[in-house]
Amino acid sequence: MARTFFRKLLMYMSSEDDSDDALNERVDGQSSRQPRKFIKRDRIKGHKCLFDDYFSEEPVYTSKQFRRRFRMRRPLFLRILNEVEANEPYFVQRRNNAGALGLSSLQKITAALRMMAYGVTGDFMDEYIRIGESTAMESVKKFSETLVRIFSDEYLRSPNANDITRLLGVAEERGFPGMLGSIDCMHWKWKNCPTAWKGMYSGHIREPTIILEAVASYDLWIWHAFFGMPGSHNDINVLERSSFFNELAQGHALPVNYTINGHNYNMGYYLADGIYPKWRTFVKTIPSPRGNKNKHFAKTQEAARKDVERAFGVLQQRFAIIRGPSRMFKVKVLTNIMKACIILHNMIIEDERDNSDDDDFEYDQVDDVLPELSHDHTTEFMEFIERHHQIRDSSTHHQLQEDLIEHQWLLYSQQ
Questions:
Q1: How far is CA 275 from the centre of its chain?
Q2: Which Pfam families does its entry note (predicted)?
Q3: Count of domains forming the chain
Q4: 204 and 94 in one domain?
Q5: Do the domain assignments include residue 26?
Q6: Do residue 141 and residue 204 come from a single domain?
Q7: Residue 29 falls within a domain, yes or no?
Q8: Would you put residue 42 in left (φ > 0), alpha (ψ -120 to 50) or beta?
Q9: Domain assignment of residue 106, given as a range
Q10: pLDDT in the model for residue 262
Q11: What is the b/e burial string over 391-403, where b = at least 16 CB atoms within 10 angstroms of the residue's CB?
Protein backbone atom coordinates (compact mmCIF):
# COMPACT_ATOMS: atom_id res chain seq x y z
CA MET A 1 0.00 0.00 0.00
CA ALA A 2 2.78 2.41 0.94
CA ARG A 3 4.78 1.47 -2.15
CA THR A 4 1.78 2.11 -4.41
CA PHE A 5 1.24 5.52 -2.83
CA PHE A 6 4.94 6.36 -3.22
CA ARG A 7 4.88 5.36 -6.90
CA LYS A 8 1.83 7.60 -7.55
CA LEU A 9 3.49 10.46 -5.68
CA LEU A 10 6.62 10.16 -7.82
CA MET A 11 4.54 10.16 -11.01
CA TYR A 12 2.60 13.25 -9.87
CA MET A 13 5.77 15.17 -8.96
CA SER A 14 7.34 14.25 -12.29
CA SER A 15 4.28 15.40 -14.22
CA GLU A 16 4.62 18.86 -12.66
CA ASP A 17 8.13 19.39 -14.02
CA ASP A 18 8.11 17.27 -17.16
CA SER A 19 4.68 18.07 -18.52
CA ASP A 20 5.74 18.15 -22.16
CA ASP A 21 7.26 14.66 -22.21
CA ALA A 22 5.80 11.22 -21.54
CA LEU A 23 6.48 9.93 -18.01
CA ASN A 24 9.20 7.30 -17.73
CA GLU A 25 9.66 6.66 -14.03
CA ARG A 26 12.15 4.25 -12.51
CA VAL A 27 10.84 2.65 -9.31
CA ASP A 28 12.77 0.19 -7.10
CA GLY A 29 15.70 0.14 -9.54
CA GLN A 30 13.55 -1.03 -12.46
CA SER A 31 14.02 0.68 -15.84
CA SER A 32 10.88 -0.67 -17.53
CA ARG A 33 8.38 1.81 -18.96
CA GLN A 34 5.20 2.18 -16.92
CA PRO A 35 2.16 0.85 -18.77
CA ARG A 36 -0.26 3.51 -19.94
CA LYS A 37 -3.85 2.88 -18.89
CA PHE A 38 -6.55 3.49 -21.48
CA ILE A 39 -9.17 6.03 -20.38
CA LYS A 40 -12.48 6.18 -22.17
CA ARG A 41 -12.89 9.95 -22.15
CA ASP A 42 -15.96 10.25 -24.39
CA ARG A 43 -14.48 12.91 -26.70
CA ILE A 44 -17.82 13.46 -28.45
CA LYS A 45 -19.35 14.48 -25.13
CA GLY A 46 -16.47 16.89 -24.53
CA HIS A 47 -16.94 18.52 -27.94
CA LYS A 48 -20.70 18.83 -27.48
CA CYS A 49 -20.33 20.38 -24.04
CA LEU A 50 -17.79 22.91 -25.32
CA PHE A 51 -19.91 23.75 -28.37
CA ASP A 52 -23.12 24.17 -26.35
CA ASP A 53 -21.38 26.35 -23.77
CA TYR A 54 -19.79 28.84 -26.17
CA PHE A 55 -20.53 28.28 -29.88
CA SER A 56 -24.18 27.29 -30.31
CA GLU A 57 -26.89 29.71 -31.45
CA GLU A 58 -27.93 30.14 -27.82
CA PRO A 59 -24.74 29.48 -25.81
CA VAL A 60 -24.78 28.96 -22.07
CA TYR A 61 -22.21 31.70 -21.43
CA THR A 62 -22.36 35.31 -22.59
CA SER A 63 -20.03 37.02 -25.05
CA LYS A 64 -18.47 38.91 -22.15
CA GLN A 65 -17.64 35.65 -20.39
CA PHE A 66 -16.29 34.25 -23.67
CA ARG A 67 -13.90 37.17 -24.05
CA ARG A 68 -12.75 36.92 -20.45
CA ARG A 69 -11.99 33.20 -20.75
CA PHE A 70 -10.71 33.07 -24.33
CA ARG A 71 -9.01 36.51 -24.16
CA MET A 72 -10.72 37.58 -27.40
CA ARG A 73 -14.13 37.94 -29.00
CA ARG A 74 -15.86 34.96 -30.61
CA PRO A 75 -15.53 36.08 -34.28
CA LEU A 76 -11.76 36.47 -33.92
CA PHE A 77 -11.45 33.06 -32.29
CA LEU A 78 -13.43 31.44 -35.11
CA ARG A 79 -11.24 33.17 -37.69
CA ILE A 80 -8.11 31.79 -36.01
CA LEU A 81 -9.67 28.33 -35.72
CA ASN A 82 -10.54 28.21 -39.43
CA GLU A 83 -7.10 29.44 -40.51
CA VAL A 84 -5.25 27.00 -38.26
CA GLU A 85 -7.40 24.05 -39.30
CA ALA A 86 -6.88 24.91 -42.98
CA ASN A 87 -3.10 25.14 -42.63
CA GLU A 88 -2.25 22.37 -40.15
CA PRO A 89 -3.53 18.78 -40.70
CA TYR A 90 -2.94 17.99 -37.01
CA PHE A 91 -6.07 19.94 -36.08
CA VAL A 92 -8.38 18.24 -38.60
CA GLN A 93 -10.71 15.76 -36.90
CA ARG A 94 -10.14 12.18 -38.06
CA ARG A 95 -11.12 8.66 -37.17
CA ASN A 96 -8.63 6.26 -35.65
CA ASN A 97 -7.98 2.68 -36.80
CA ALA A 98 -10.97 1.49 -34.78
CA GLY A 99 -13.25 3.94 -36.57
CA ALA A 100 -13.76 6.19 -33.55
CA LEU A 101 -13.75 9.96 -34.03
CA GLY A 102 -10.76 11.76 -32.60
CA LEU A 103 -10.63 15.15 -30.97
CA SER A 104 -12.12 18.04 -32.92
CA SER A 105 -10.16 21.14 -33.89
CA LEU A 106 -12.36 23.06 -31.46
CA GLN A 107 -11.20 20.89 -28.57
CA LYS A 108 -7.50 20.99 -29.45
CA ILE A 109 -7.34 24.72 -30.13
CA THR A 110 -9.43 25.58 -27.07
CA ALA A 111 -7.15 23.45 -24.90
CA ALA A 112 -4.04 25.11 -26.36
CA LEU A 113 -5.43 28.62 -25.98
CA ARG A 114 -6.66 28.00 -22.42
CA MET A 115 -3.24 26.66 -21.41
CA MET A 116 -1.59 29.75 -22.86
CA ALA A 117 -4.14 32.06 -21.26
CA TYR A 118 -4.14 30.52 -17.80
CA GLY A 119 -0.64 29.03 -17.66
CA VAL A 120 -1.92 25.64 -16.50
CA THR A 121 -0.61 22.14 -17.22
CA GLY A 122 -2.07 19.85 -19.86
CA ASP A 123 -3.73 17.65 -17.25
CA PHE A 124 -5.85 20.60 -16.09
CA MET A 125 -7.78 20.58 -19.40
CA ASP A 126 -8.74 16.90 -19.28
CA GLU A 127 -11.90 16.97 -17.15
CA TYR A 128 -13.79 19.55 -19.22
CA ILE A 129 -12.43 19.20 -22.75
CA ARG A 130 -11.72 15.45 -22.51
CA ILE A 131 -8.19 15.72 -23.85
CA GLY A 132 -5.19 13.78 -22.58
CA GLU A 133 -2.22 15.57 -21.06
CA SER A 134 0.29 14.62 -23.76
CA THR A 135 -2.19 15.56 -26.50
CA ALA A 136 -2.85 18.91 -24.85
CA MET A 137 0.88 19.65 -24.70
CA GLU A 138 1.29 18.67 -28.35
CA SER A 139 -1.64 20.93 -29.23
CA VAL A 140 0.09 23.91 -27.59
CA LYS A 141 3.26 23.27 -29.59
CA LYS A 142 1.43 22.76 -32.90
CA PHE A 143 -0.90 25.71 -32.29
CA SER A 144 1.90 28.17 -31.52
CA GLU A 145 4.03 26.89 -34.39
CA THR A 146 1.12 27.24 -36.83
CA LEU A 147 0.24 30.75 -35.64
CA VAL A 148 3.81 31.89 -36.20
CA ARG A 149 3.90 30.30 -39.64
CA ILE A 150 0.68 31.77 -41.03
CA PHE A 151 0.32 35.09 -39.18
CA SER A 152 3.88 36.43 -38.72
CA ASP A 153 3.92 38.43 -41.94
CA GLU A 154 0.77 40.25 -40.88
CA TYR A 155 1.12 40.60 -37.12
CA LEU A 156 4.89 40.52 -36.51
CA ARG A 157 5.84 43.10 -39.11
CA SER A 158 7.48 46.49 -39.28
CA PRO A 159 5.19 49.52 -39.63
CA ASN A 160 4.27 50.52 -43.18
CA ALA A 161 3.75 54.04 -44.53
CA ASN A 162 0.18 54.28 -43.20
CA ASP A 163 1.25 53.03 -39.78
CA ILE A 164 4.13 55.50 -39.59
CA THR A 165 1.83 58.38 -40.53
CA ARG A 166 -0.56 57.38 -37.74
CA LEU A 167 2.24 56.87 -35.20
CA LEU A 168 3.83 60.22 -36.03
CA GLY A 169 0.48 61.99 -35.76
CA VAL A 170 -0.15 60.63 -32.28
CA ALA A 171 3.46 61.31 -31.25
CA GLU A 172 3.10 64.93 -32.38
CA GLU A 173 0.02 65.32 -30.18
CA ARG A 174 1.95 63.89 -27.22
CA GLY A 175 4.79 66.35 -27.70
CA PHE A 176 7.32 63.95 -29.25
CA PRO A 177 7.55 64.66 -33.01
CA GLY A 178 9.32 61.81 -34.82
CA MET A 179 8.72 59.18 -32.11
CA LEU A 180 7.86 55.70 -33.40
CA GLY A 181 7.49 53.86 -30.09
CA SER A 182 9.26 52.70 -26.94
CA ILE A 183 11.83 49.92 -26.59
CA ASP A 184 12.62 47.70 -23.60
CA CYS A 185 13.32 44.11 -22.55
CA MET A 186 11.56 41.59 -20.31
CA HIS A 187 12.66 38.23 -18.91
CA TRP A 188 10.79 34.91 -19.02
CA LYS A 189 11.87 32.43 -16.34
CA TRP A 190 12.91 29.01 -17.63
CA LYS A 191 12.18 26.44 -14.92
CA ASN A 192 13.35 23.40 -16.87
CA CYS A 193 16.53 24.92 -18.25
CA PRO A 194 19.15 22.15 -18.71
CA THR A 195 21.63 22.11 -15.85
CA ALA A 196 24.60 22.65 -18.16
CA TRP A 197 23.02 25.88 -19.47
CA LYS A 198 21.89 27.43 -16.18
CA GLY A 199 24.99 29.56 -15.77
CA MET A 200 24.65 30.99 -19.27
CA TYR A 201 20.93 31.75 -18.86
CA SER A 202 21.11 33.15 -15.30
CA GLY A 203 21.54 36.89 -14.85
CA HIS A 204 20.86 39.41 -12.12
CA ILE A 205 17.79 37.58 -10.84
CA ARG A 206 19.84 34.40 -10.18
CA GLU A 207 17.47 32.19 -12.14
CA PRO A 208 17.58 30.98 -15.77
CA THR A 209 15.63 33.37 -18.01
CA ILE A 210 15.23 34.15 -21.70
CA ILE A 211 15.02 37.76 -22.86
CA LEU A 212 12.39 39.39 -25.06
CA GLU A 213 13.30 42.71 -26.70
CA ALA A 214 10.25 44.58 -27.98
CA VAL A 215 9.12 47.89 -29.43
CA ALA A 216 5.55 48.99 -28.60
CA SER A 217 3.47 51.99 -29.62
CA TYR A 218 0.86 54.03 -27.76
CA ASP A 219 -1.92 51.50 -28.54
CA LEU A 220 0.22 48.65 -27.07
CA TRP A 221 0.79 47.09 -30.50
CA ILE A 222 4.15 45.28 -30.48
CA TRP A 223 6.00 46.12 -33.71
CA HIS A 224 9.23 44.30 -33.07
CA ALA A 225 9.98 41.19 -31.03
CA PHE A 226 13.42 39.61 -30.65
CA PHE A 227 13.35 36.59 -28.33
CA GLY A 228 15.89 33.94 -27.39
CA MET A 229 18.91 35.65 -25.82
CA PRO A 230 20.09 34.08 -22.52
CA GLY A 231 19.19 35.98 -19.37
CA SER A 232 22.84 36.69 -18.52
CA HIS A 233 22.87 39.42 -21.21
CA ASN A 234 21.83 43.00 -20.57
CA ASP A 235 19.74 45.24 -22.82
CA ILE A 236 22.77 46.52 -24.74
CA ASN A 237 24.00 42.99 -25.56
CA VAL A 238 20.54 42.07 -26.79
CA LEU A 239 20.38 45.23 -28.89
CA GLU A 240 23.72 44.46 -30.55
CA ARG A 241 22.40 41.07 -31.70
CA SER A 242 18.89 42.18 -32.58
CA SER A 243 17.80 42.43 -36.20
CA PHE A 244 15.88 45.61 -35.48
CA PHE A 245 18.64 48.17 -35.99
CA ASN A 246 20.37 46.07 -38.63
CA GLU A 247 17.29 46.70 -40.75
CA LEU A 248 17.73 50.43 -40.18
CA ALA A 249 21.39 50.22 -41.19
CA GLN A 250 20.50 48.25 -44.32
CA GLY A 251 18.07 50.97 -45.36
CA HIS A 252 14.92 48.83 -45.06
CA ALA A 253 13.13 51.29 -42.78
CA LEU A 254 10.93 53.97 -44.29
CA PRO A 255 12.28 57.54 -44.00
CA VAL A 256 10.84 59.79 -41.29
CA ASN A 257 11.21 63.54 -41.82
CA TYR A 258 10.33 66.08 -39.13
CA THR A 259 11.50 69.37 -37.66
CA ILE A 260 12.02 70.23 -33.98
CA ASN A 261 13.16 73.60 -32.71
CA GLY A 262 14.32 74.63 -36.19
CA HIS A 263 16.43 71.49 -36.81
CA ASN A 264 15.54 68.93 -39.49
CA TYR A 265 15.74 65.17 -38.87
CA ASN A 266 15.29 62.23 -41.25
CA MET A 267 15.26 59.24 -38.89
CA GLY A 268 12.62 58.32 -36.32
CA TYR A 269 13.51 57.58 -32.72
CA TYR A 270 12.39 55.38 -29.82
CA LEU A 271 12.06 56.21 -26.14
CA ALA A 272 14.40 54.12 -23.99
CA ASP A 273 15.66 53.88 -20.43
CA GLY A 274 19.10 54.90 -19.22
CA ILE A 275 20.98 51.70 -20.05
CA TYR A 276 20.60 52.13 -23.81
CA PRO A 277 23.47 53.79 -25.74
CA LYS A 278 23.49 57.43 -26.83
CA TRP A 279 22.40 56.81 -30.41
CA ARG A 280 20.36 59.16 -32.56
CA THR A 281 17.59 56.55 -32.66
CA PHE A 282 17.09 56.73 -28.88
CA VAL A 283 15.74 59.46 -26.65
CA LYS A 284 16.44 58.81 -22.98
CA THR A 285 15.39 60.51 -19.79
CA ILE A 286 17.64 62.83 -17.79
CA PRO A 287 18.99 61.28 -14.58
CA SER A 288 18.79 63.67 -11.63
CA PRO A 289 17.42 66.54 -13.75
CA ARG A 290 18.12 70.12 -12.71
CA GLY A 291 15.98 73.07 -13.66
CA ASN A 292 12.32 73.18 -14.60
CA LYS A 293 12.90 72.41 -18.29
CA ASN A 294 14.89 69.25 -17.62
CA LYS A 295 12.52 68.11 -14.87
CA HIS A 296 9.50 68.58 -17.13
CA PHE A 297 11.17 66.70 -20.00
CA ALA A 298 12.20 63.80 -17.74
CA LYS A 299 8.64 63.54 -16.44
CA THR A 300 7.05 63.50 -19.91
CA GLN A 301 9.64 61.09 -21.36
CA GLU A 302 9.21 58.60 -18.52
CA ALA A 303 5.42 58.81 -18.83
CA ALA A 304 5.47 58.20 -22.59
CA ARG A 305 8.04 55.40 -22.29
CA LYS A 306 5.61 53.41 -20.17
CA ASP A 307 3.86 52.33 -23.39
CA VAL A 308 6.21 49.36 -23.74
CA GLU A 309 5.93 48.52 -20.03
CA ARG A 310 2.14 48.57 -20.31
CA ALA A 311 2.38 46.35 -23.39
CA PHE A 312 4.44 43.81 -21.43
CA GLY A 313 1.94 43.95 -18.57
CA VAL A 314 -1.10 43.42 -20.81
CA LEU A 315 0.70 40.64 -22.70
CA GLN A 316 1.44 38.78 -19.47
CA GLN A 317 -2.04 39.45 -18.15
CA ARG A 318 -3.64 37.92 -21.23
CA PHE A 319 -1.27 34.96 -21.45
CA ALA A 320 -0.19 33.70 -18.06
CA ILE A 321 2.02 31.05 -19.66
CA ILE A 322 4.71 33.73 -20.17
CA ARG A 323 4.10 35.27 -16.75
CA GLY A 324 5.13 32.20 -14.79
CA PRO A 325 8.18 29.94 -15.12
CA SER A 326 8.17 27.85 -18.29
CA ARG A 327 8.15 24.07 -17.96
CA MET A 328 9.18 23.43 -21.57
CA PHE A 329 12.62 22.08 -22.42
CA LYS A 330 13.42 23.41 -25.89
CA VAL A 331 14.24 27.02 -26.77
CA LYS A 332 12.55 26.61 -30.16
CA VAL A 333 9.25 25.69 -28.47
CA LEU A 334 9.56 28.63 -26.06
CA THR A 335 10.26 30.97 -28.98
CA ASN A 336 7.16 29.82 -30.84
CA ILE A 337 5.00 30.23 -27.75
CA MET A 338 6.30 33.76 -27.10
CA LYS A 339 5.80 34.82 -30.72
CA ALA A 340 2.34 33.22 -30.80
CA CYS A 341 1.31 35.18 -27.69
CA ILE A 342 2.50 38.42 -29.30
CA ILE A 343 0.64 37.61 -32.54
CA LEU A 344 -2.57 36.93 -30.60
CA HIS A 345 -2.00 40.11 -28.59
CA ASN A 346 -1.75 42.19 -31.78
CA MET A 347 -4.76 40.45 -33.33
CA ILE A 348 -6.84 41.32 -30.28
CA ILE A 349 -5.73 44.96 -30.44
CA GLU A 350 -6.67 45.15 -34.12
CA ASP A 351 -10.01 43.44 -33.54
CA GLU A 352 -10.98 45.72 -30.66
CA ARG A 353 -9.65 48.99 -32.05
CA ASP A 354 -12.57 51.42 -32.28
CA ASN A 355 -11.55 53.26 -35.45
CA SER A 356 -9.40 50.77 -37.30
CA ASP A 357 -8.57 51.36 -40.97
CA ASP A 358 -8.15 48.61 -43.51
CA ASP A 359 -4.40 48.79 -44.08
CA ASP A 360 -2.63 47.04 -46.91
CA PHE A 361 -0.42 44.39 -45.34
CA GLU A 362 1.27 43.21 -48.53
CA TYR A 363 5.02 43.87 -48.67
CA ASP A 364 7.84 43.23 -51.09
CA GLN A 365 9.84 40.21 -50.00
CA VAL A 366 13.60 39.98 -49.95
CA ASP A 367 14.84 37.49 -52.55
CA ASP A 368 16.45 34.31 -51.24
CA VAL A 369 19.12 34.34 -53.98
CA LEU A 370 22.59 34.30 -52.45
CA PRO A 371 24.74 37.21 -53.65
CA GLU A 372 28.20 36.69 -55.09
CA LEU A 373 30.97 37.33 -52.59
CA SER A 374 33.07 40.44 -53.17
CA HIS A 375 35.90 42.05 -51.26
CA ASP A 376 35.47 45.44 -52.94
CA HIS A 377 33.94 48.35 -51.02
CA THR A 378 30.82 48.74 -53.13
CA THR A 379 28.52 51.76 -53.00
CA GLU A 380 25.91 49.70 -51.11
CA PHE A 381 28.50 48.62 -48.55
CA MET A 382 29.70 52.18 -47.99
CA GLU A 383 26.08 53.34 -47.57
CA PHE A 384 25.58 50.56 -45.02
CA ILE A 385 28.59 51.76 -43.03
CA GLU A 386 27.38 55.36 -43.27
CA ARG A 387 23.94 54.44 -41.93
CA HIS A 388 25.57 52.55 -39.05
CA HIS A 389 27.53 55.69 -38.16
CA GLN A 390 24.36 57.78 -38.42
CA ILE A 391 22.43 55.49 -36.08
CA ARG A 392 25.24 55.56 -33.49
CA ASP A 393 25.81 59.32 -33.78
CA SER A 394 25.91 60.58 -30.18
CA SER A 395 26.08 64.25 -31.20
CA THR A 396 22.73 63.97 -32.97
CA HIS A 397 21.40 62.13 -29.90
CA HIS A 398 22.29 65.09 -27.67
CA GLN A 399 20.98 67.63 -30.20
CA LEU A 400 17.67 65.78 -30.52
CA GLN A 401 17.29 65.59 -26.75
CA GLU A 402 17.98 69.32 -26.37
CA ASP A 403 15.46 70.14 -29.10
CA LEU A 404 12.83 67.97 -27.45
CA ILE A 405 13.47 69.63 -24.09
CA GLU A 406 12.83 73.03 -25.66
CA HIS A 407 9.80 71.71 -27.56
CA GLN A 408 8.25 70.14 -24.47
CA TRP A 409 8.85 73.32 -22.44
CA LEU A 410 7.25 75.44 -25.17
CA LEU A 411 4.15 73.23 -25.17
CA TYR A 412 4.02 73.35 -21.37
CA SER A 413 4.28 77.16 -21.40
CA GLN A 414 1.41 77.46 -23.88
CA GLN A 415 -0.98 75.42 -21.74
A1: 22
A2: Plant_tran
A3: 2
A4: no
A5: no
A6: no
A7: no
A8: left
A9: 43-151
A10: 86
A11: bbbeebbebbbeb
Q: Are residues 117 and 225 in the same domain?
A: no
Query: What band does 23 get if pLDDT is binned at 50, 70 and 90?
Result: very low
| 92 within some domain | yes
Q: How far apart are CA 166 and CA 196, in angstroms?
A: 47
Helix count (H) and strand count (E) of the chain?
Answer: 15, 7
- What pTM value is reported for the model? 0.78
Give the pLDDT score at 188.
84
Name the amino acid, one letter, at 100: A
Span 337-363, pLDDT tens digits = 999 999 999 999 999 986 444 333 222
Q: Are strands 269-272 and 179-189 parallel, antiparallel or unpaired?
A: parallel
Task: Check: CB of residue 215 under 8 Å from CB of residue 223.
Answer: yes
The H or E element that residue 139 is part of is helix 133-155
Write the DSSP symbol of residue 91.
G
The span from the CA of 297 to the CA of 211, in Å, is 29
Q: Which residues contact 46 (CB under 8 A, 6 or more apart)?
A: 103, 107, 128, 129, 130, 131
Q: How far apart are CA 74 and CA 37, in angstroms?
A: 36
Does residue 241 share a domain with residue 168?
yes
The neighbour count for residue 60, using CB atoms within 10 Å, is 10
What per-residue string of b and e applies to 355-367 under the rule 16 or more CB within 10 Å gives b? eeeeeeeeeeeee
